[in-house]
Amino acid sequence: MNNNLQSRRSFIGSILTIGLTGFAGSIIYPVIKYLIPPKQREVEVSNVSAGNLKDMANNSYKIVRFGNKPVILIRTEKGDLKAMSAQCTHLDCTVQYKKSEGVIWCACHNGKYDLNGRNISGPPPRPLEPYLVQLKGDEIIISRKA
Amino acid sequence: MNMKEHLSKTYMWLDERLDLTSLFHFIEKKTVPVHRSSIWYYFGGVSLFFFIIQVCTGILLLFYYKGSADLAFESIQFIMSKVEFGWLIRSIHAWAANLFILSVFIHMFSVYFEKSYRRPRELTWISGVFLFFLTLFFGFSGYLLPWNKLAFFATKVGTDIAGNVPIIGEALKGFLRGGDDVTGATLSRFFGFHVALFPGIFTIILVIHLIMVQRQGMSEPIESEPEAAKAKQKAMPFFPNFMLRDMLLWLIVLNVLAILAVFFPAELGQKADAFSSAPAGIKPEWYFLFMFQTLKYIPAKLFFVDGEILGILLFGLAGLLWIIVPFWDKKSSHGLRNRKMNYLGLAAVLFIIILTILGWVS
């Protein structure tokens, strides 16, 4: 009799535990799923126009929108065009061209890259991703490197 | 029936239902020890005062603030230029946030140096450290809300640091940003954290923290414990003696806050632009400067480990050790003086101060 009661108790206990766990799960699961942001399809961009060559003086730079990402376009002192990702590989700040030193510089943690995007000093662990620059007449076209 | 009789009848009615007499009895009996370090007792109260100010001014700002990337910056511009006293409310909110964090720092380190975390107050310490972390999260999330350039890049860096946490980093970064990059989705989330999630959690932990302080009474320095009888003599009633002193200090603090808010109003800067470079001279708020500066000094690679990951691991470990201080300082819990803890605390304070100054001047 006692044994019967005991097993009935433990049976009800385990049914309750399973039920409550399931109940908690049915609340927590949708909440967690809700909090994870949905994957937005990135705008597929293969190339963008970065304006007219005549509008860009030697030894200057600009940040160009490439889909959702910023790309830095630099016209060197000699007039060459260089383009690479503007996102610092250290902590994601947007870099700039430091004319006085002729380097790409991240103001957030003083990281420096040379004009080929190689990390040369400070905390950046990797080089900047290079982009291709072409001229279509006077129009500057930036595209992803294959 | 005169006024006095009315009041006494109301009191009796309430007392019958809420047992107010025992509450008054508790307040009457509550004392605060008097010794050479008593001054540090006030900083918990000052921190509480700043929290109350933040809740009040935060609610006022909510009447006009709009939490979206298109409208946030403009809504603050509107608050500061069109709404009467809007500049003052925002300025008080911004200054009180800084003073709140400063006061929490002082409160926490004074508790540390007094070893008030020792048995039986371990849980009070742990709840306090969680409140400290939440205060920093408040600062971090609130900083983005004006949606200006500095805030934008500070959030980029801060969330990217979170992304370097081993294993869960990427998921955590996505959760914080509401996507891959810092966008309007991030602003919406931070707005939610700042005005709903954090205040809710903070209030719960704060209530627990305060209940524990009331149940255990004020901690006394280790030196005076053997002379318990003497210490008992040197105590002042909480009500009204200590409370009046508390009130006076709150009044002084309120004046300092008003002077700062009026003469050095909070700036707004330029609107955030995801396609512009991080401005030269960019720095986080002063309370994150020591971590920011440390990250600058850690090289890109150290023993095959990325510098930033190493930084996060080191700060993570320090934070964990800080939470569990009462459990590894066994000596203080046994009522013995532990000088090593003083040196360690002093090293931590010096590290924070020196790196903050270096970050400030660089």
Structural overview:
The complex is a heterodimer of chains A (146) and B (362). Chain A contains 1 helix and 10 strands, in the order αββββββββββ. Chain A is an alpha+beta fold and 146 residues long. A 6-stranded antiparallel sheet of chain A has the order 1-10-9-4-3-2, with no helix packed on it. In chain A, strands 5-6-7-8 form a 4-stranded antiparallel sheet, with no helix packed on it. Chain A is elongated, with a radius of gyration of 28 Å. Chain B has a domain of 232 residues: Up-down Bundle (Cytochrome Bc1 Complex, Chain C). In chain B, a hairpin with a 2-residue loop joins strand 3 and strand 4. The longest helix of chain B is centred in the middle third of the chain and has 33 residues. Chain B is globular. The chains are: A alpha+beta (146), B mainly alpha (362).
Question: What brief labels describe this structure?
Answer:
heterodimer; A: 146 residues; alpha+beta; Rieske Iron-sulfur Protein; 2 domains; 6-stranded antiparallel β-sheet; 23% helix; B: 362 residues; mainly alpha; Cytochrome Bc1 Complex, Chain C; two-stranded antiparallel sheet; two-stranded antiparallel ribbon; 16 helices; 4 strands; 71% helix; globular
Low-confidence stretches of chain B: none
CATH architecture of the largest domain in chain A: 3-layer Sandwich
CATH topology tier name of the domain at 40-271 in chain B: Cytochrome Bc1 Complex, Chain C
Give the spatial strand order of the biggest sheet of chain A.
1-10-9-4-3-2
Q: Count the DSSP helices of chain B.
A: 16
Q: In one word, what is the shape of chain A?
A: elongated
Largest sheet of chain B: 2 strands, antiparallel
